[in-house]
Amino acid sequence: MVMADVTVLTDMWKEEEKRIKELLEKLGQQMKDHGIGGKVKSIGGSPGEVICQVAKDENAQLIVTGTRGMGKIRRTFLGSVSDYILHHAHVPVLVCRHKDDHKN
């Protein structure tokens, strides 16, 4: 029974790695198509901390990140990656909202 659980987890892990690889390739191609230079990476860890550290390691000039628009109450309890980056990055940060998040 334990072996079946390990097999299921292994299969799930492989599927997730495949999904991440495809997403990285897609994002890299979108950057190329729009003439945007940069790197697309997948690194494990706390997102805000990792983004700030990679920006420092890569001597980035700007961090561009998105926001999910959680609202003040949810953000207070769950935290916000973009908020963390804004307060801990040593370079300018551009936080972009998805076009569907804008209210008319």
Describe the SSE topology.
Elements: H1 2-33, H2 47-57, E1 63-67, H3 72-78, H4 81-88, E2 93-97
Parallel strand pairs: 1-2
Helix pairs in contact: 2-4
| CATH topology-level fold name of the largest domain | Rossmann fold
**Poorly predicted residue ranges:** none
Class derived from helix and strand content: mainly alpha
Question: How many domains?
Answer: 2
Termini gap: 54 Å
Domain UspA: 12-97
Protein name: UspA domain-containing protein
Pfam families: Usp (PF00582)
Write up this protein:
The chain is mostly helical and 104 residues long. It has two domains: 1-38; 43-104, Rossmann fold. 56% of the residues lie in helices and 10% in strands. It has a two-stranded parallel ribbon with strand order 1-2. α2 packs parallel to α4 (81-88). The termini are far apart. It comes from Magallana gigas. It holds the Pfam family Usp. InterPro entries: Rossmann-like_a/b/a_fold, Universal_stress_UspA, UspA. This is UspA domain-containing protein.
Can you describe this structure in just a few lines?
This protein is mainly alpha-helical and 104 residues long. The chain is 56% helix and 10% strand. Strands 1-2 form a two-stranded parallel ribbon.
